[in-house]
Amino acid sequence: MGERDGMTRRQVIYLTRHGETVWNRDGRFQGRRDSPLTARGEEQARRMGEALTQHIHRSERDDWTIVASPLGRAQHTARIIAGILGLSAARIESEARLEESDIGAWTALDFAEIEACSPGALDGSTRHDWYFRAPDGETHAAMAERVAAFLAASASRERLILVAHGVTGRVLRGLYLGLASEAALQLEAPQDAMFRLGGGAVERIDCGGA
């Protein structure tokens, strides 16, 4: 993405994914619904906050804004991160354009249940693109449009910490780097690392195993 699409070279974004949830652990797909963070997920969020303290000096933390998906798992993660940075939870902004992809009737199902209710719908799909096969779900084009709109609207904000989701994070990084959709959807979506976006480049920052 970069300057040609409205972002400034001065802008720095730390992009995180919410910590592990009960449905992540159990292999169920959440989409726009929620399940709580596990103890491991809360520890992952703490480690992300601790990693951020190594990259953002204490004297500069009031200059940063945390923007999170309104879904509960992202909000919980954002509150943990804010606490470790010494920021008030009231400073967390809720942003619907960072929500996870909507998988419609497949929400809360696992792969076997999806195949049972939509026989053959996953044929020819990959582990990276099946999200957009749901008959009543969000399309990739619609998701990319809303994420791109968020990036454009945020271009003048120089210091952002984003708390989003697996697919959302892939799409966002893909737009930032100007990748084709197929390549973007193959990007990793870790819950024990985050990404620094700045100067047109993306850097992975490990936050320790949890």
Question: What would your notes on this structure say?
Answer:
This protein is an alpha/beta fold. Helix content is 35%, strand content 15%. The chain has helices at 22-26, 39-55, 72-85, 111-117, 140-153, 166-177, 181-184, and strands spanning 12-17, 65-68, 92-94, 159-164, 193-198, 201-206. The protein has a six-stranded mixed sheet with strand order 3-2-4-1-5-6, with helices on both faces. Strand 2 (65-68), helix 3 (72-85) and strand 3 form a beta-alpha-beta unit. Helix 2 crosses helix 3. It is globular, with a radius of gyration of 17 Å.
Layout of strands and helices, then pairs:
Blueprint: E1 12-17, H1 22-26, H2 39-55, E2 65-68, H3 72-85, E3 92-94, H4 111-117, H5 140-153, E4 159-164, H6 166-177, H7 181-184, E5 193-198, E6 201-206
Parallel strand pairs: 1-4, 2-3, 2-4
Antiparallel strand pairs: 1-5, 5-6
Helix pairs in contact: 2-3, 5-6
Could you say which structural class the secondary elements and strand pairing correspond to? alpha/beta
- Walk across the major sheet and give the strand order: 3-2-4-1-5-6
Shape annotation: globular
Instruction: Note the total helix count.
Output: 7
The span between the termini is 32 Å
User: What pattern of helices and strands is seen along the backbone?
Assistant: EHHEHEHHEHHEE
> Which percent range describes the beta-strand content?
5-15%
What is the strand tally?
6
Q: Give the C-alpha Rg.
A: 17 Å
Sheet with most strands? 6 strands, mixed
Roughly what is the average pLDDT, rounded to an integer?
Answer: 93
| Percent range of helical residues | 25-40%
**Spans of 5+ residues with little confidence (pLDDT < 50)?**
1-6
